[in-house]
Amino acid sequence: MTADRRWTIASYAYGLLVAAVLGYFLLGLVVQVSDSFGNLLAVQRPTLAALVRDQFTQHAYLRPLLWGQIKLVYELSDGQYYVWFRGIHVVQVVMLIAVCLALMRPKTALDAALVPLGIAILTGSHTFAPMVREAFPINSFLTIAIGCLFAAWLTLRDRARWYTDALMLAIFIGCVLTFESGILVWVVCVAAVGLGARGLSRPAVAAMTMCLVAYMVVRMFVLHVGSPSLAERASGFGFGILEPNQLMARFEGRAWPFYLYNVVSSISTVLFSEPKGGVWLFIDELTRASVDRWTAVSVASSTVSTALIGWFVWTRRARFLSRTLDRDERIVALFLIALAANAVISFPYTKNIIMSPAGAFLAVATYVASRAWLQAAAPPRTAFAIAVVTMLSCGWAFREAGTHYNLRQTAAEQRTEWVAVDGWLERQRIALTSDDAHWLRDQLHRDAVWNHPTPFQFSRVWARWFEIDR
Predict the structure, then answer these.
(1) Interstrand relation of 235-237 and 240-242 (parallel, antiparallel or unpaired)
(2) Per-residue pLDDT tens digits for 370-423
(3) 407-411: Cβ within 8 A, 24+ apart
(4) pLDDT of the residue at 67
(5) Which ranges of 420-458 does DSSP label H, i.e. alpha helix?
(6) How far apart (Å, rounded) are the C-alpha atoms in residues 37 and 467?
(7) In CA terms, which of 86, 130, 137, 392 is 20 to 30 Å from 325?
(8) Containing H/E element for 237?
(9) Of 282, 312, 309, 310, nearest in space to 297 by CA
(10) Is 467 a residue whose pLDDT tops 70?
(11) Share of the chain above pLDDT 70, in %
């Protein structure tokens, strides 16, 4: 076995270990009340065909395959909802880590040494934590993040083949009909080919583009599906949360400043971990001279990551301007393009989870930039270069631990919701009118309270260290 092969295997073994630990914590969750229970109630009666068809009459969203997936798994589970829905959740996380490692492509000892940093950024980001707490029975945000990273990996391969073209086209169609941000898969493919990557043929890109145009035309002019309105949900703005009526009062008729704020905030939240959900927590805490430990570590680690990426771009600016890029430079360029595109499609409102595809790309871009930073360090500054990467790794490892702590908190909160599920149904004005609906409620309640009780909880002493952003 060659040295290169050994370091690659070691890297994937580490990724598998991280996935196994994270999977253990994910299995502490249950099918939750909010959204999941309501969604499962909605898929009980209709047939699969009718359910998918009805999604084409929605006014703000077009997600037929998401509902089709929920219905299919619901039927296949045969009442074993916890096993199926939580099992799929764990498989998705394993796939995300695997495709992230494939994109990193570790081959040397230095590569393997930086893999923990890359994976810590992937799983420790504030865009990742809500992604694995998502309320939908099947995690659509994870699906899109996997699709985007897979698109980058495939397009950065040495040559295109007809079956990879067909696979990528199918993945794009599947993603865009699952969730609106699936458009980012097309962005990644087009950008990669434009940057000189050869893993996807131009006819395949043309076919994807035609599918996208058809999707937009049908969505906007045939089905008249628009974007969420100001009145649909609360959103962060400045130092607080504005409720729908406040958003309407402030921005109705002139929404563009709000939309511009959301785009800029979405870019900033990936680069600097601020604002979070549109709210500038760090600045607010600074003005009150009471900066939370978690906020400080989050902002510092993200800022250093962004600085390393900025250094990488600056030192290779001539190659970027001439567009004579190698694989690492294409990865960083893809991150910047995906970041901008992800922010633009997030204009209606800001949420950490919406920027999860860009957050996943941040992990790979930081990995690439950190490797270049260490390789470029001359002997007089080698110790400094290593110290920077070591401190960066510690910061992101702290955030990665916070993700696990947060999952344990979420597990307890989910059981509490199930204890009071009847009150939730009353507040949501949902009436269980059939025996199947009552059986579903009782089965999910048993899963949450009796079959899979609240797992071990960390001491509340750690709460002051891991005040995770919700």
Answers:
(1) antiparallel
(2) 999 999 988 878 899 999 999 999 999 999 999 999 999 899 999 999 999 999
(3) 407/25, 407/26, 407/28, 407/29, 407/132, 407/133, 408/25, 408/28, 408/455, 408/456, 408/457, 408/458, 409/457, 409/468, 410/29, 410/133, 411/28, 411/29, 411/30, 411/454, 411/455
(4) 92
(5) 421-427, 435-446
(6) 27
(7) 392
(8) strand 235-237
(9) 282
(10) no
(11) 96
Distance CA 66, CA 451 (A): 28
Residue 445 main-chain phi, psi, to 5 deg: -65, -45
**Cα-based distances in Å from 221 to 53, 217, 295:** 17, 6, 44
Report the distance separating Cα 301 and Cα 399, nearest Å.
9
Tokens of residue 179, six digits: 């969730």
pLDDT score at 317: 94
Residue in the block written with tokens 């060659």: 2
Taking residues 334-344, report their average pLDDT: 96
Tokens of 116: 């923990």
Mean pLDDT score across all residues of the chain: 90
pLDDT band at 135 (very low <50, low <70, confident <90, very high): low
Residues whose CB is less than 8 angstroms from the CB of residue 12 and which lie 6 or more positions away in sequence, other chains included: 98, 101
Mean pLDDT value across residues 250-279? 89
CA-to-CA dists, residue 189 to 106, 141, 185, 367, angstroms: 22, 18, 6, 21
Q: What's the CA angle centered on 124, arms 67 and 243, to 5 degrees?
A: 60
Residues 249, 100: Cα–Cα separation, whole Å: 43
